[in-house]
Design a protein that fits this description.
The complex is a heterodimer of chains A (474) and B (338). Chain A is mainly α and 474 residues long. Chain A is 71% helix and 0% strand. Chain A folds into 2 domains: 164 residues, no CATH class; 279 residues, no CATH class. The chains are: A mainly alpha (474), B alpha/beta (338).
Chain lengths: 474, 338
Amino acid sequence: MLFNSLSFIQFFLIVLALHYLPFSWSFKKFNLLIASYVFYAAWNPPFVILLWISTVVDWFAAKGIARRQSATAKRLWVLVSLLCNLGLLGFFKYGGFLLDNFVLLTNAVGVDFHPARPSIVLPVGISFYTFQTLSYTLDVYRGATKPSRSFLDYALYVTFFPQLVAGPIVRSVDFLPQCATERRVAAGQLGWGLSLLTIGLFEKTVIADGLFAPICDKVYAQAGAAGPLDAWIGTLAFSGQIFCDFAGYSTCAIGAAMCLGFAIPDNFRFPYAAVGFADFWRRWHISLSSWLRDYLYISLGGNRTGAARTYVNLAVTMLLGGLWHGANWTFVVWGGLHGIYLVIERWARALFPPWPLWGALPMRMTLALTTYLAVLFAWVFFRAQDFTTAWQVTTSMLGVGRGVGESLVTKIEATIVLAATSGLLALHWLMRDTTLENVAARAPWWMRAAVLGGMLYAMMTVAGDNRSFIYFQF
Amino acid sequence: MTQTTANADSRRPAGPYRRVWGGAVLVLVALTVLSEAFWRAQGFQPSVTDDEQLWALERDCLDGAGPRTVVVLGRSRIQQAFVPEIFEEMRPGYGFVQLAMGGDHPLALLRDIAENTDFAGVILCTVTAPSLLPELWNQQQHRIDYYRREWGPLKRMGRRVKTFLQAHLVILAPELSLREAIPDLLRGRVEPQFLRVSPRRHHRVDYRKVDLAKFTEDQLKTITRNVETYVALEGFTNWPDGLGRIEDWVNAIQRRGGRVVFLCCPTSGDYRAVEDKHFPREVFWDVFAARTAADTIHFEDVPGMREFVCAEGSHLHIEDTHAFTRLLVEELFPSPRR
């Protein structure tokens, strides 16, 4: 079910109504659990079984880890959890990809092997909920938390619908304590939650789908015919689209959870104002980057094993982070580029001593713009369906592709993208060191009312084809 | 390991939320009223988005429909030409279900109704000669798949609300979406509304509001391109082999008391010349009509229908659709008040 659909509004109203009735806390949690399964089943009912498998296996794995004394037994339970979650992910998400590459490899060495390609449907959100349940067993294994005593609380943690299919990836230590006592929702919480829901939907439906997506789609669909201006406009549009799409979803998720009395973590902090790539990843998809840092990068040794090994760890983490996004080598290249960016940045920081000029505003703005441009080039691989498209767009952006001919984008489209992107970058820069909450707190009530009313109007009239969120596919 | 949560209670901005949300609703209403007045003053009227969900709502009407129901299958021609108000005026007590859809040939839907429903009313299936080519039978299957796999109570409720709002608010017309209207407003040139879709999927197309010469040229290019594709299909030469299966569907419906009527809609001008050249009536339609157990109506055989001159070669002018519907209903029910 999409947040940007009337179906969701009806669903959410029913859930809210039930949640605000004077039932017991356990009954309310049970309602939320059932609602979450309905939310997931609305897309493809049989795949709820996968959620159950992941839930039940990790429930028992965490119990097993906590009960066993020997390190080997504990590791065995961790292995069970890893095999189950990564096995599900591997089969549904990477099955076809692995087979394709195996066939390529065997054909390359002269073996004529052409198996039938299995028709595997990717369950929506599988990458998110498998990582979420995995973090639970890994936290129990590391002693960071104890297994939950309540299966209902734990199942709700895995399944909680606001963030089930596209994050933020919530840690059990953040969520489970909230289940212990009844979440009483104050009027202000509902008011701010609905405000966040509105802001998120506005980002998604008006900015991402209404402004950016059609222009980006147009350029990437005809990448071979794209001139330099087209390629730049198309990729700028994608940078705006992907941010507003994903950050919009996260804001909706946080808002919907808040309406129900739950707090879930931030996922974005104005990333296009990042000064450097480490800063970018502290601001972009925070719940995934912190997951990768805590469970992969640190497990590989982090920065504790010398400079060279640190660089390797960074690169491996980012390559796998890229692969997490999709079973395609273009995502691996996207992750690889970010790995290279991070390695270069770390190397440069070690090489050049701190210099007061780095902190000066013009220098920081230049560095932020440089970071954005590098991120922009990486987005080409994220957006392109294949390497041919990515190559065509990249070379066009560098001015070595197709010459200047008839432009794919109209002057009005180019103006819209340039204005909207400039606005987005300026907004990120202004909001860099503050939060939406702080800004809202300082604004008079009538200004908040005018902004929300304007957003509602724009959402009502933008009319699109109800695109799903980009991150649903991951 | 605990992460910061920007939405923790302590960081929630304080504020008079009742006033904020009350004000937001007022702003929304004010903007809606102002823009509604602006667009109506420009001559725009409400129009519904004709998508898979609106089709599915209409498809819902088929389940449980009695024998006094006419189901309309076909493409955009009949969607524009069949005027519900005229039908209802001429056949009080009868219902209709408009399942035609632009661009796709309709036999998949005929098959689905025959094999997967117990409908026993009248099916008006509008076909052209290419509709009979087996390779093109499945063109509407995607809608059937959508209906069977994705359509459900929540979507139904959501779509009903959307349809209701679109039927009453001009600002929700697809051509007035911000995406469409902003570039037009920036250019300082708003295209007039030439298509209005009713909640029951009738397309009212006013060709007086378009560049008809360009439309005609585009249509001719499309039919020429399509014909090139069709004649290259295997079914172009052995299409009669598929008639047996079509007859199975017709018989299945007629055995349970239903009735199937195949209709060939009017075309004219260069468009018709291309059709006649590659799909001559005596080679396709007449052979088909002779072999099917269903009733058939060819526009050339109906006095009044054969005189229509289409707007761009394949669709009737809006001012002819009422007369066409009257003629069609008379053909469908030869003794009108029986």
